[in-house]
Amino acid sequence: MLISRRQKTLCLKEGFAVLAGLSTACFYPELTERGLMFAASIGAQAAEVFFNAPSELTDSFVRELRRIADGSGTRILSVHPFTSGLEPLLFFSGYRRRFCDGVELYKRYFHAANLLGANLLVLHGDRRISQKPRSAYFDAFGELAGEGRAMGVTVAQENVPRCASYCPDFFRDMRQYLPDARFVLDIKQAVRAGYTPGEMARAMGSGVVHLHVSDHNAKNDCLPIGTGDFDLAALLRQVKSQGFDGGVILELYRDSYGEYEELSSAYQNICAAIESALE
């Protein structure tokens, strides 16, 4: 289902320069490149690449992903490491040598982002049960973010229920400690942690640079946009008022939808929500 030229440009009006897209995470455990092929096949404005294996970080593989995206004019905005689960050990253990090695590992993601034309890396961070003071977390994040910035990539903290970043006050504290910190707002993760997306957005403030969007209702916390009760356009109006300028990326789990056509419909609904937010 290809989108119209009007839909291709509607997100760039009135200074609200957002792009609608899909994450390859929606297709896992399908191969990463096949997920990107689908996003390209429907003419998606944007995509996020969720890397799933070390071999996917080779230059030859990354360049093939770029070729797929460029073939349809799809812009890759962000990358997501498959090593998210290791981030507590890599960056937040206090073991300096492992932190430095972790930085070198993540430089491979930064390099891949450069090849893809992406400027964001999504970070999960430390475990929720960590007893370390937040200042130590923020210091480690700031150092990693500085390494990313030196390579032209913004490290953006995502809200995740199992992580230290599960709650709004974490982001309020992070903004105060690191005024330049940037954030990824994930709707389903906010719901799973017991907060509304609006609450999380207010806590993140002008730091929100990327959205992982999904729908939900009283029984299901992760659904394709347009199949639940969530008002995405209202959230977009809220983040627009906070200065948001970034990607609105559909991110679902494979068991939260059936046929791929549901992703096409969800993508169309994202475009419609963006258009509504501009009215």
Automatic annotation (TrEMBL):
<feature type="domain" description="Xylose isomerase-like TIM barrel">
    <location>
        <begin position="38"/>
        <end position="259"/>
    </location>
</feature>
<dbReference type="InterPro" id="IPR036237">
    <property type="entry name" value="Xyl_isomerase-like_sf"/>
</dbReference>
<dbReference type="Pfam" id="PF01261">
    <property type="entry name" value="AP_endonuc_2"/>
</dbReference>
<dbReference type="InterPro" id="IPR013022">
    <property type="entry name" value="Xyl_isomerase-like_TIM-brl"/>
</dbReference>
<protein>
    <recommendedName>
        <fullName>Xylose isomerase-like TIM barrel domain-containing protein</fullName>
    </recommendedName>
</protein>
<dbReference type="InterPro" id="IPR050312">
    <property type="entry name" value="IolE/XylAMocC-like"/>
</dbReference>
